[in-house]
Design a protein that fits this description.
The structure is a single chain. The chain has 309 residues and is α/β, with parallel strands linked by helices. The strands form 3 sheets. The chain has a 4-stranded parallel beta sheet, with helices on both faces. Strands 5-6 form a two-stranded parallel sheet. Strands 7-8 form a two-stranded parallel ribbon.
Length: 309
């Protein structure tokens, strides 16, 4: 009988230990806080700063267009069950605004990575003055500010690992410094008169401002707008007049609009090449070397330079 009682006590104690493990301070079952990030770029940023101390889950996969993304019931549940939700902001995730408002009103931690960037650095929509272009990651200096914002948010979530988040931030900022140097060195290979970037939609205006390129997109800043026949014709005329060597498709936008532009240029007696595919609103697939923000930017700059130099 004694042996049975002792065995029952051991089982009971083990059950208590298992039940209590890793569930304090709203942390995930593995002891880490659960953070949901909207885009692949935002998810990569949170992982870079959070490191081993956060469990990051992204809503959108590579190649997904955040402008048009509609959150599923499963996405909403995932965000509701997270300890923190991180998004780009500036209406990039245009169809998720109401969801973010509901999360914020429930007092759950929610963070826009763009929130601390000085508004003077934002580019206005041409078609909607007063609203800001959300593609801030194409200026590395602005993405550094976003990284600092994420670090502060994680420190509020998990103060116990504040020093680790600060160390990860410093390391990441150093990597971004190296990325900027790489970008500037590669751009030197392109003659000044060839620094014209034509893409499917206006995602690259921050890139143009930061690195000295004239940028034109066939569609507006949001892919929700459609390029009309007159838009194609006008841009084709510009390409012919300027003798542009190459135009570019985007990973998250259908190729048909750029292919139509190429045909319109051909109809005017000039040949323009499709210089390659650029990552605009997401990172690349796993295993491509472009699955991180830094890898994505390097892949883009290599594609642009190699086509235009």
């Amino acid at each position: 009988m004694k042996r049975i009682l002792i065995l029952m006590m051991i089982i009971s104690m083990s059950a208590v230990v298992v039940t209590g493990c890793g569930n304090s301070n709203n942390a995930a079952n593995d002891g880490r806080y659960k953070v949901v990030a909207t885009t692949t770029l935002v998810a990569d940023l949170v992982k870079s700063i959070g490191g081993e101390y956060v469990n990051v889950q992204g809503l959108m996969g590579p190649g997904v267009d955040p402008h048009l993304y509609k959150a599923s019931a499963g996405d909403v549940k995932l965000m509701q069950n997270a300890d923190m939700v991180v998004y780009n902001g500036l209406h990039l995730e245009g169809k998720m605004g109401d969801i973010f408002e509901n999360i914020e009103s429930s007092k759950k931690m929610i963070l826009a990575v763009s929130k601390d960037i000085d508004e003077s650095n934002f580019i206005d929509f041409v078609t909607n003055p007063g609203s800001s272009d959300p593609h801030i990651w194409f200026d590395v200096k602005l993405w550094k500010e976003a990284a600092k914002t994420v670090a502060e948010g994680l420190k509020k979530l998990d103060g116990e690992h504040a020093s680790e988040f600060d160390a990860n931030l410093e390391k990441y900022l150093g990597e971004l410094d190296e990325l900027e140097e790489y970008i500037h060195q590669r751009i030197l290979e392109v003659p000044q008169e060839n620094r014209v970037l034509i893409t499917a939609h206006d995602a690259f205006n921050y890139f143009g401002n930061a690195y000295g390129f004239e940028v034109k997109g066939l569609q507006g800043i949001s892919t929700a707008s459609e390029a009309g026949t007159s838009d194609v014709s006008q841009l084709a005329k510009f390409i012919v007049e300027r003798r542009i060597k190459a135009i570019f498709v985007e990973s998250s936008v259908p190729r048909k609009s750029i292919e139509a532009l190429q045909e319109a240029v051909k109809a005017q007696g000039f040949q323009v090449e499709i210089g390659g595919e650029l990552y605009s609103d997401s990172t690349g697939d796993a295993g491509t070397g472009a699955e991180t923000y830094i890898g994505t930017f390097k892949a883009n700059i290599d594609t642009i330079v190699d086509a235009l130099k």
